[in-house]
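dumping this here so i dont lose it again. seq + smiles for adenosine-5'-triphosphate
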Amino acid sequence: MLLLMLLLMPTLAHAQDQTQNQPQDQSDDAAIELLEALDVSSYADKGAAIEAIVTSDDSRAREWLQELLDGRLQRTDDGRFVVVLENRGRDWPVADALTGEALGEISRRNLERIGINNALRNQLRSAIAVVDLYSPDLERRRASAERLLGEVDADLAEPLVSVIEGEEDDQVRERLVQALAIHRIELGELDALSQLEGSLHPRVRVALNRAASGDDPVLADAARSALAGIEQQLKINRGLETLYFGLSLGSVLVLAAIGLAITFGVMGVINMAHGELIMLGAYTTWAMQQLLPGQPGLALILSIPAGFLVAALAGIAIERGVIQFLKGRPLETLLATFGVSLILQQLVRTVISPLNRTVVSPEWMSGSLHINDALSLTLNRMFVLGFALVVFAGLMLIMRRTRLGLEVRAVTQNRAMARSMGIRATRVDIMTFALGSGVAGLAGVALSQLTNVGPNLGQNYIIDSFMVVVFGGVGNLWGTLVAGLSLGVINQVLEPWAGAVLAKIIVLVFIILFIQKRPRGLFPQKGRAAEG
Amino acid sequence: MSFLGSLSERDRVFDFLMPAQSPVDVRHGPILYLEDVTVSFDGFKAINDLNLTIDDGELRCIIGPNGAGKTTMMDIITGKTRPDTGKVWFGSRHNLLAMNEPEIASLGIGRKFQKPTVFEALSVFENLELAMAADKRILPTLTARMVEPVRERIEEVLETIGLTELRHRPAGILSHGQKQWLEIGMLLMQRPRLLLVDEPVAGMTEQEMERTAELLTGLAGKQSVVVVEHDMGFVRSIARKVTVLHQGSVLAEGSMDQVSNDPRVVEVYLGAPDEEA
Amino acid sequence: QEEEDPIKVGILHSLTGTMAISESTLKDTVEMLIEQQNEAGGLLGRELEAVVVDPASNWPLFAERARELLAQEEVDVIFGNWTSVSRKAVLPVVEELNGLLFYPVQYEGEESSENVFYTGAAPNQQAIPAVNYLHEQVGVERWVLAGTDYVYPRTTNRILEAYLQEEFGVAEEDIMVNYTPFGHSDWQNIVAEIGRFGSEGKKTAVVSTINGDANVPFYRELANQGIDAADIPVVAFSVGEQELSGIDTAPLVGHLAAWNYFMSVDTDANYDFIDAWIEYTGDEESVTNDPMEAHYIGFNMWAEAVRKAGTTDVDAVKDAIIGVTVPNLTGGYAAMMPNHHITKPVLIGEVQDNGQFDVVWQTPSTVAGDAWSDFLPGSRDLISDWRAPMRCGNFNVETGSCGGSTAAEEAEAALAE
Amino acid sequence: MLTIDKLNQFYGESHTLWDLDLEVPAGQCTCVMGRNGVGKTTLMKAIMGEEPVSGGNIRYADDVELTRRRVEDRSRLGIGYVPQGRQIFPLLTVEENLRTGLAARSDGLRGIPPRIYELFPVLEEMKHRRGGDLSGGQQQQLAIGRALVIEPRLLILDEPGEGIQPNIVTLIGEVIRRLIAEDGLTVLLVEQKLPFARKYADRFVIMDRGRPVARGDIGELSDGLIKEHLTV
Amino acid sequence: MWLTRPFSERSTQLFLGVLIAAMTLVTFLHLALPESNPLYVNAYTVNLFGKYLSYALLAVAVDLVWGYLGILSLGHGAFFALGGYAMGMYLMRQIGDRGVYGHPELPDFMVFLNWDSLPWYWAGFDMAWFAFLMVLLAPGLLALVFGFLAFRSRVTGVYLSIITQALTFALMLAFFRNEMGFGGNNGLTDFRDILGFNLRSDSVRLGLFLATGVALGLGYLICRAIASSKLGRVCVATRDAEARTRFLGYRVERFQLFVFVVSAMLAGVAGALYVPQVGIINPSEFSPLFSIEIVLWVALGGRATLYGAVIGAILVNYAKTIFTGVMPEAWLFALGAMFVLVTVFLPKGVAGLLAYRRKNSTSSSTPGNTSNTKEVSA
Ligand SMILES: Nc1ncnc2c1ncn2[C@@H]1O[C@H](COP(=O)(O)OP(=O)(O)OP(=O)(O)O)[C@@H](O)[C@H]1O
Ligand SMILES: Nc1ncnc2c1ncn2[C@@H]1O[C@H](COP(=O)(O)OP(=O)(O)OP(=O)(O)O)[C@@H](O)[C@H]1O
Ligand SMILES: NC(N)=O
Ligand SMILES: [Mg+2]
Ligand SMILES: [Mg+2]
């Protein structure tokens, strides 16, 4: 590193100039030599070759480093260096590594990748980070500053001071200051400590920990007290994090269960195929992404109505094909829909594949929302949480504000009488079942962002779904919401100290005991009516 | 010594083999005694400071507007509903509030529900069999046999309630009135000390009403009977003492003539006298 | 007359239920191999015929189906099973009815049956080399051993714990062990925990024995919480190309897997195999993986042994197969060892964004599978050798006697006679 | 209003209604009487379509053949039904119970007609209580109110006074008369209580074992007929 | 005696007659015929039948609580598995020092997981009488405690169903854990002897088949005796109107508990007979889906008939055996379709079809016969 950084400085400035001024006309021979040096089997030699590229003043250096990092820099059988543009299938489109000229498709048999390992990956990243420190692109500078935290050494420290001075972006500057401070603490400079106080970044904590157990008693003491403050902060953040984890797990449970809260809770159909309806929603998302390659976000958004529709249609088919014949025999719906669920599962295995399908997360759902250095909220789960609440609110509206809500309850409570009152029971059945199934489809769309999309998807959620609906109190949508969220939170609170398996067992035992206390769930139907 | 003595009494059954009930103590008069009973549902007071005493062997009619709390009162006596406050005693020994439904039932309190409830999947005959006074613990029930006296008793009751022909049909297919009769029959099989009868003649013809009246008056004396009914003709034909409930407490009490002339009763319940048939 | 009868090859892989996801491909693989063999003229001049049954991911049903294959269908050999529990269920049946079972999946070891041939990796052919790599090449000092809560991960992790402590002197607080239920889908807490565990200054790696379906949400969570392979690499023992084909791999680049075969291996034998496979399935996207290679090797070994013995008779094949050497798909050879395990190279691969692995390291030579781990106190002294005259799957070198398996007993009895 | 012709009904193998003929003249109250279990309720259910019939015709309002209509359409044709045993929706509130009647109205009305609450003030008081929590008599009032919400042309009442306090029974009788007089409503009533029937019905039909055995103006209902058909 | 009372019923006579005849026939075809005979029943098939019979006993146990008590237990697999584990533990101990590590006491999985000694709850399982007692007691006690809590609190309907499901799910997760000392996911396998006889011999297989048949007969008899007693009628009454039954003076929760415990014990016996025949017990028997499947057998055969449960269990499992062999990739379609079609077209299951035919044939000879209705609905 040492040597590298030292040599780097002039080059960097140079490279900056060059990209601005002229395209490139350096001799390709030199470039080929540089790349050729990469194409060796020893990783140590590769490391040296990377260094050589960094210190070369070739303007394409950064691109090469990036391509190498991405594994796209490859060599053809006839010794030409190319960049792979797309690496799926047996034939891949490539471009010339030196000129960028497209070379058409080449069979992957005839390509050889210039492999790197994690050590080289780290080296490449650091090198790119240092280069990017001077980049005009703010995003690159930010990433670079982030990367350098804890990586600053003596050689970088000096130029860093001037970089900090010249930096306009607060965020970048703050990070660089911290990065420098960590370095200075390592050197035993007490006054750097104040720049780190209150920072929750793990690298900072590592540095402070090291200082706290260092030889300098004054510094150690100061580091310890800084750490104490940080620990306090961390605790609070961990609490918030656990809560978030719990709510997000809960929202998954709610989503999975909420359709069942309609078909089972309100209509009284023990729909064992509910999980498979969820699965259909997830597969719809997959299919949508197949139809719109390269646009995972759009596909996902379109999947929301599509998933609803597909599952709702499947629901209608189930209702018309099976459930309508089982009026007044609710327990038997268990039997028939179990059969349906077997058929649907196998159908997916036969028609699509027994293997899982890839569903891609769109850019805007990947990664996390950075609250502070100790607390980030994963975006995909945040979307799912929000989605669950929206779906819940929508359902609530339908059940409360539309005639359908009233009619479906009337029909389930006394079918004959409801019909005598002029309620078209058959239509109500179809619409309600379609609604519940459609919501299951929505759950599937959301779950495709969290878990496997495969034939077993449904089975993994069916038991939990029934558990949530019953725990909340059958027939009560609010109950389902509260039950799902609270089971999620309980689970996540228990998990850190009990472990995942035991936490699950404890939650189940808790449900059993809770039902003893409240034999009709969280929000029971009270009064004469419920006792029948 | 006395323990040994007790062992030698071969005709005596051990305590733990005896049905777990002690005789009802009615030496002090009333067989049923409700004091200051209040119950409310979500803030609505269905029973409000109710006081009521039923004497042993008495036949009491209870009337009152819809929603006055008559059925709720029976729920309290039979342990179905727990009052918020108050005391309910059976005889002077049994605090009914400390017992659950089967315990209360085995003390000898029988009930006919307002909405006839019978075991729909069981035959009429079996409905009566289950209702019969017997040792209702597990093992005796498991090993119980259909003996001749029992069968005769059931046949007798079937005769009384007019369902002899339908005795092997499932109770679920009975008409409304037939179910009413079946429930009365079940009550008869139970031979309780105290019968609580909620609207026994709803849906019956005049002549059936007369039969029911005879039946109930015949029981009175040996057993205590509490009847809730809205049919004034029927009430008049059996009533000795009538209690009028209104908004959860006693509005009036006395003979039929007394209460039916009470202007408050007329206002809230009976309506203008010329309307009464 | 009898010579005209086809040779029956039983295939005992779940086509339905939770394991279909992994096993159904193996059924297709064996069918493809049979087809190829028949095109090449069959075996001993006889056709091969596949007998496929579906044990439906149900363990007792595995035993029942195995019994059906052997007793009713009278197959000459069985290729089958994935999970250890299914193998354990089938084991007494194949021993009792003297069948042949080729088991193609990496497993926890601690077993050696006269009738079973383990063509997947034993722990010393996968787990141990992988941690060696991490320790020596990557400089890992802290270890997270994360697994699904069942016997294979538990055993593997036990072995690894002992190994790490004994060989590398890793302190207890530098090892974090975590188990999750099958199909676990909520990894938030655990991943956060791993993140914290790994950001205390020492280079940390996760050794994952997480099973099948739980992996997708696990890797997704890793990516979303920003745990990067360069910071905390995850080396998996149960994630292959097939599992990756259901995951969006872009965020996973750089995570590792240890296997004895990768689809990306650059040999002609492998390319031919892949082409044949794609042709057979008719799906351009279909991938190959390690257990498929294990069946490829197992099938060829069996065929070779049958040729050698000149018969499909189980006892003859059993004797003939020890020492048989066939090419594997990674450019070397696999030999059947006397303990019924085979020799395998160990490869470490990094995940690429195209769902493939790039081999970053491999053992200089092949490693022979070890039925009994050297790092478990109970099995340290055991060896297995199914050649005459020892014919024992669990010979205790300390006591000098053969342990209790029935087969061994019978062998002893036979010798005494 | 309603003409029934040769109606037969079976429960499984038991023949309940035998070749039943019945005429319900428009704008009048016809009272069906008979001992327990003779098939009165079954007849009402057959008219509503709740029990399938095997043969016979039910003609409604001169031209509509009811047996060919679905149950839900019968109420939409203007038939209100107060079944025996109340059959309220126990878990719906009183108001929701009443609102179920709106489905059958053709005018798309969205609120409960105020008249219902005027008739049965207790229903307004208990508007937000669950139907199943009401006392028996309150439920009965609710059942009648609910049938009135659809503004029927033909109202079928199966023992409507059952369990209701005397002054309200009187009130119900008055209401029936008023609706007949003011709206031209037709009422088909099942009633066992002679005083009520005598007071509010125009015509009577006595049933025995699934057949009508006597009929006429209510004034013709003699003690002899009662003795013959209504006592056991 | 109350237990012999069912002998006077036609259906019981018929059932026991068929059972005994089938057992005799299988024994005869297995023992007396040469292998070459097309009618010869091989050991594999005998074993298979034995397994079906143990499933049938399990189904009978479920039908007792579901059909007569109205409790839809979605957790009976737990009792079955507990009985199975009790038997499995006995069989493990029978292996003695013949395990792969040759340890005289510890089962193999404990040796290689480093256990030093048997956990306390394994004590006594080397004795057959103790183990067999535990086959009854382990599920019985669990049912007692669980049922006591649930029935006392008047948990009913789906709430009860779901907590039974939670129970078996929790047990499944617990048994998966290696720390529990039951072999984790791999469960207990590699059994050798039972009562000193070699489990891998054909005669022992036949013996187990016959023992299962006898157990099924006895179990059926017990359930039938309960169902046809007054207690059985109280159960049906409870199913229809629980509150009303209380008002008649029956302590409903005790009746429920009694029947529930009896049923759990029967399920335990079924599990105990199942394990030596299939050779493995692992936590997947605790899987909620398995418990649901049991209910499906009962529903398919015909609820509340007992013999229907037997028919259903045998039919579904036989179908599974056939389908998974004959049409391995499509058998789920067939099984699923079977569930759907039976439910839609045979509302009372296969038994309902039988009863219907019987009724039709009798009623055509004796018109107006009404006493049959009683039997059909009971
Ligand atoms: N569980 C409950 N929840 C809410 N309100 C209740 C409940 N039980 C009873 N009530 C109310 O308490 C009042 C008394 O009811 P109760 O059934 O005792 O009346 P009743 O005197 O029997 O009337 P009726 O003559 O109509 O049968 C009624 O207004 C009823 O709505
Ligand atoms: N679902 C059913 N299945 C079989 N028989 C039935 C069914 N419902 C009623 N019955 C029988 O049909 C006959 C007529 O019953 P219905 O209810 O019409 O009598 P009802 O005249 O209304 O008597 P009530 O005055 O008691 O209300 C009765 O004998 C009854 O047992
Ligand atoms: N052998 C395994 N991976 O279960
Ligand atoms: Mg009342
Ligand atoms: Mg009637």
